DNA topoisomerase I
Amino acid sequence: MRETSPAAIKSEPEEDNGFYPSPQHNKTSKREHDDEDSEYKPKKVKTEQDKKAKKRKYEYEEDEEDIKPKKKTKDKKGTDGKKGKKEEEEKWKWWEEERSTDGSKWRFLEHKGPVFAPPYDPLPDKIKFYYDGKQMKLSAPAEEVATFFSKMLDHEYTTKDIFRKNFFKDWRKEMTSEEKSKITDLNKCNFSDMNEYFKAQSEARKQMSKEEKQKIKEENERILQEYGFCIMDNHKERIGNFRIEPPGLFRGRGDHPKMGMLKRRIRPEDIIINCSKDSKHPKPPQGTKWKEVRHDNKVTWLASWTENIQGSIKYIMLNPSSRIKGEKDWQKYETARRLKKCVDRIRTQYREDWKSKEMRIRQRAVALYFIDKLALRAGNEKEEGETADTVGCCSLRVEHIKLYPKIDDQEYVVEFDFLGKDSIRYYNKIPVEKRVFKNLQLFMENKQPEDDLFDRLNTSILNKHLQELMDGLTAKVFRTYNASITLQQQLKQLTCSDENIPAKILSYNRANRAVAILCNHQRAPPKTFEKSMQNLQTKIDEKQNQLSAARKQLKAAKADHKASHDDKSKKTVEVKRKAVQRIEEQLMKLQVQATDREENKQIALGTSKLNYLDPRISVAWCKKWGIPVEKIYNKTQREKFAWAIDMAEKDYEF
DNA sequence: TATTAGACTTGATACAATCGAA
DNA sequence: TTCGATTGTATCAAGTCTAATA
């Protein structure tokens, strides 16, 4: 788990350096391309790309190849590269087909059900548990839960009061009455023998021979082949999470009141299976039954169960490369593109609404301004005491913002400081328009710090309003829209045509980073960060020394040539000059790398790349500059974005 | 209309696999 | 070939939003 660092991530006002989508910056969007046709219609696709696609419409016929898993591509150094490539080419292009119009998600669904966690394997007798200094043999159920705790001994979790309290309470439920009467104080429990045993086990796993490792790998592959795929409407599709979550201790993030509780083992009796009636139903393990087998094609999941910590439902669903996920993803970006067309209107409107006579409308308008300008999340209400205390826009409280009429040469500054999703801190100090500022003062009047800032607003009211402004518009569309438009703008701004590929990729990363900062996607600085920076610096220093040495040599060679004027010395000068040039380039590359890494210290690029950036923007950029798409997307990402890679041309505009 | 269950996306992180320098 | 660093993948928690229910 990560601690929310006190270090301000977004403390500098100059972070508002132009790429924040403020209303002013986007005044131009109206006159940009008019692509009425490229709009995504939920029922029928009609993008330009698609029209093209339609022309070469691919008539799909069921064929063995198609329901074969993409197995060969999994093999690392292609035992059969050619075949892998061939299969790649033959991959089903679902985006060239019509979508269903009746709200059903599939017509046929067949799968083998989930893979269960292995049963508990009791500890060898020589591994002891001690209570109050005395050795004690635990019953199997109590021992299993004890192992969960013992495995986490090195983790900060086990030092936290709530974690320990919750764990102990749930552990006691698993004990026999005899154990229960004996074990009454967690502080008297000694799990260290168990802890060392598990450490040794994991060490041994690392030390396994190649053959043993290979064997495990093959077994995993076999399970993947058997359970990792389903057949949905004639196509073999990869399942995302076909393994049931094993039992363990709940690791809530932030100050979670339920951390340490026992996540119980899921049995077949807990599982609801979803598949089509006319499919081969998955068989429950010997001697067990499913909770239910249903045939609901209005949903996408293959299996579900209710988890015991929050009582929420968990699902087994398909991989992001699947048709069902891809269509939805595509649709998401098309909705964001529709927002692009009317965002000016919406902005004008909410600015008008800041002046409304009605408090609820003013609150709605200010909240929407934050969602738009700062890419805040909607902020649903949460049940108190059930989860960590985190907020989003609509659930902001008075204590989360501070108002400064004037600070550091800026007027009307709002300082945000709150914990958002996953208890990640959002800190930002930003000047706003006078009207927003005055409204905020008004909203805060006569309120306690723990009162809601927007007391007349919630996500449902906000989204209802947004729905009226544009079909399909919700708060999160703004995040998608602003992320994607920022990427597009930044790429335009940062890419220099005369730069080489690494420099262009740095530009791409910087554009990506601008989005990650906007969306506040943080990461804990890698444990090895300082060290790896140091290593890099050492390399840079060395390179610099090399460079000055090379320059000296060049100078000497020049002097030599000046004196002798012969061919040999001329050649030497050339050689030395080239050497200097090469070293300069290497140095620059290292420096670029250092910059990139430093800038990325606490920024995570992955989330925005995967969830917020219209992949067609990136693909178009690659095509425009002749950059292999592999430099931007790894294999998994290419599978997820296959639709975009196939359809986006270099002139694609978000 | 308000509440809650349900379905699905988004998110950080732990761990495994791979890479590249020594 | 080994080992530490880097990258990729799996995991599962925590959001958003919709639809069902009271």
Observations:
- The CA atoms of residues 165 and 272 of chain A lie 32 Å apart.
- Residues 240-241, 243, 245, 250-253, 256, 307, 309-310, 312, 314, 377-380, 382, 387-388, 390, 392, 420-423, 459-460, 463, 474-476, 526, 528, 531-532, 535, 634-636 of chain A lie near DNA strand C (CB under 10 Å from a C1').
- The longest helix of chain A spans residues 529-564.
- Chain A is about 45% helix and 10% strand.
